[in-house]
Amino acid sequence: MAWYIVRRVLLVLPTLLGVSIAVFAMVRLIPGDPALAMAGPHATPEYVRQVRLDLGLDEPLHIQYGRFMAGLIRGDLGRSSRTRRPVAAELWDRFPNTVELTLASMFVATLFGIPAGIISATKRYSIFDSLTMLIALLGVSMPVFWLGLMLMLLFSVTLGWLPSVGRGTLLHLVLPAVTLGASSMAFVARITRSSMLEVLRQDYVTTARAKGLREGWVIYRHALKNALIPVVTVMGLQLGILLGGAVLTETVFAWPGVGRLMVDSIGARDYAVVQGAVLLLAVAFVLVNLLVDLTYGFLDPRIKYT
Amino acid sequence: MKRLMARLNSWDFVRQLRRNRMALLGLTIVLVFLMAALLAPYVAPRDPLQRSLRQALNGPSWDAPFGRDELGRDILSRVIYGARISLTIGLVSVGIGALIGIPLGAVSGYFGGVLDLLMQRLVDIMLAFPGILLAIIVVSTLGIGLTNAMIAVGIGTIPTYIRLVRGSVLSIKEYDYISAARALGASELRIVFRHVLPNCMGPIVVQSTLQFATAILWAAGLGFLGLGAQRPTPEWGAMLANSRLYIRVAPHATAFPGLAILLSVLGFNLFGDGLRDALDPRLRGSL
User: Fold this and answer.
1) What residues contact B251, with CB distance under 8 A and at least 6 apart?
2) Distance between CA B26 and CA A105 in Å, rounded?
3) pLDDT, tens only, A248-260
4) CB nearest B133 (choices: A31, A150, A281)
5) Residues 6+ apart with CB under 8 A from A264
6) Calpha distance A248→B225 (Å, rounded)
7) Which residues lie below 8 Å from residue B98, measured CB to CB, with a gap of 6+?
8) Partners of residue A146 in chain B, C-beta under 8 Å
9) Does the N-terminal peptide bond of residue B232 adopt cis geometry, omega within 30 degrees of 0?
10) B130 CB near a chain A CB, below 8 Å?
11) Which has the least CB within 10 A, A57, A90, B10, B224?
């Protein structure tokens, strides 16, 4: 077990190194002159030269990368060209908001997805089952930004129940969390249903029923525990995907998170911030996946660590 | 026509597909959008770029069934022309993903060794950028615009193809007929491309259909964020980005482009699921 953890953690290192190279390369691969692209179309030649010097773009690539990594290790991601503040500080201000939104939408997805999946599986081919699967199908095909706009239209513009944009009270969190969580909810419901159906076919479930146990007891005590193992894995993966999907949701609801900061910074050619935001989201995603893998082992003792 | 149907029916998977009502619904939706895209100049009531400021933000009417946008342009016509753009995006991005991803996955799975190891690490790195993020990174490097958005979405689909094809190749290369081909003196590359890859086509076709849906969704997302198609291009995502500012006074301008995205994505997803069930009997009835 310990050996497995060490191995799994070590396997993440090359990925993280690769992510750092990809983020480093992002700016350097800009077609034409990166310094010119960063300075903007109306910049004077002096300013372009200044940008090039600031970013060290005139030096050989390996030296640039060395500087970049040394900075990373010190937590120095450069400065925002818009606000002149350190990128790390900009990200640090917003990352908790993104985490808050992501966790809230995971909560929404679980709260509705798992029960819907269970009921669908136990009442297979019922109206509830068809309806849930239809909603689940719509959920995975739904453009998240459009869902957000439609929910906003219904619940804040028409009904006036919920605030439409910004962050503040718990009420502000409802619409963004439901929007972002919708596709995960659909996914969790589908996986729960199919996994539950699989488990309900097993012999030990038949045995439990043959013993004369109540159906509810069979489902919750015997079937559900095993059925939830794949669901937990999927939820872990979804958590990471939500982190990426937050980019769109944050833009719709003017949520002050890392995703929106990234999109704004792309528009403003604030490449240092874009790099930092991409790096942060990717590293968070990789680490969440690592955690999921490790938890998986604890949940299912049948898994052999080889 | 009758003979054609009889011939098609002799293939098991076509029969399966015809029995699957959801898949047929998906195919119908896809065909409707395809027709709209191909016949746009004939079926669209107006020029999608023609402004009429006096009619700006007018609601749906007989004259303009989907209403008018903030510049008085006919939304129905823009949605119809948008089908052209979205289907092109799907075709180009899935094409990029498949053309690069399939050979890489095949070579990686067939030859194994160091090459495979390197390729898998590369895929790990690409997959470390969740969902649309990889496409956003590529766009921010290449520059904003529709063409770059297509390339970005295409690059974003490469890792899925590599993983999928590698997995299929790994199982197929163990079969006896591969050893037989080798015994007959076929070169390794010939074996990969003539004997192994054609037998992975099932999963590839299914994946491409589903990937088409994802491509439309991502490209619309990029358009919405202002990183893809630029105004006045009638791209569904970009249309939403403009019309959301007027959502209070003209909700129809936001509703219809979004519905177009939802329906087209749904169509490809339904059809893809149906294809998977028809091509892989083991999966029938699950999920």
Assistant:
1) A153, A157
2) 29
3) 999 999 999 999 9
4) A281
5) A270
6) 7
7) B157, B161, B204, B208
8) 240, 254, 257-258, 261-262
9) yes
10) yes
11) B10
Going by pLDDT thresholds of 50, 70 and 90, the confidence category of residue A277 is very high
How far apart CA A277 and CA B129 sit, in angstroms, is 11
CA B28 to chain centre: 16
B-chain residues near A198 (CB < 8 A): 286
Burial of residue A301 (CB within 10 Å: 0-12, 13-18, 19+) is exposed
pTM of the entire structure?
A: 0.87
CA-based nearest residue in chain B for residue A37: B143
- For A40, left (φ over 0), alpha (ψ -120 to 50), or beta? left
CB within 8 Å: B128 and A286 = yes
Task: Name the DSSP class of A73.
Answer: H
Q: Which two tokens stand for residue B114?
A: 């160091």
Which of A73, A37, A18 has the alpha carbon at shortest distance from B134?
A18
Local confidence pLDDT in tens for the 287 residues of chain B = 666 666 666 666 677 777 788 889 999 999 999 999 898 889 888 888 888 888 777 878 888 788 888 888 888 999 999 999 999 999 999 999 999 999 999 999 988 889 999 999 899 899 888 878 889 989 988 888 999 999 999 999 999 999 999 988 888 888 888 888 888 888 888 888 888 888 888 889 888 999 999 999 999 999 999 898 888 889 999 999 888 888 888 888 889 999 999 999 999 999 998 888 887 655 544 44
B contacts of A193 (beta carbons < 8 Å): 287
CB contacts of B122 in chain A (<8 Å) are 18
What distance in Å separates residue B261's CA from the closest CA in chain A?
7
> How many angstroms away from the CA of A217 is the closest CA of chain B?
25
Residue of B nearest to A158 (CA): B248
Q: DSSP secondary-structure letter at B245?
A: G
Q: Taking CB atoms and an 8 Å cutoff, what residues of chain B touch A21?
A: 125
ipTM exceeding 0.95, yes/no: no
Residue A248: which of B144, B224, B261 has the nearest Cβ?
Answer: B224
User: Tell me, what's the pLDDT at B287?
Assistant: 44
Q: For B141, which of A21, A29, A145 is closest by C-beta distance?
A: A29
Report the residue of chain B nearest A195, measured CA to CA. B287
Helix residue ranges, H only, chain A? 2-28, 34-39, 45-55, 61-74, 87-122, 127-141, 144-152, 170-200, 203-210, 215-217, 224-252, 258-267, 271-299
Amino acid found at A201: R
The verdict on B121 touching A (C-beta cutoff 8 Å) is yes
Cα–Cα separations (whole angstroms), residue A291 to A116, A201, A298, B182, B268: 26, 31, 11, 44, 33
Window B:27-86, CB contacts with A under 8 Å: none
Rg (CA), chain A: 24
pLDDT of residue A306: 45
Q: How many CB pairs under 8 A join A and B?
A: 138
Please name the residues in contact with A194: beta carbons below 8 A apart, sequence gap of 6 or more.
A121, B286, B287
- Decide if B254 contacts A153 (C-beta within 8 A): yes
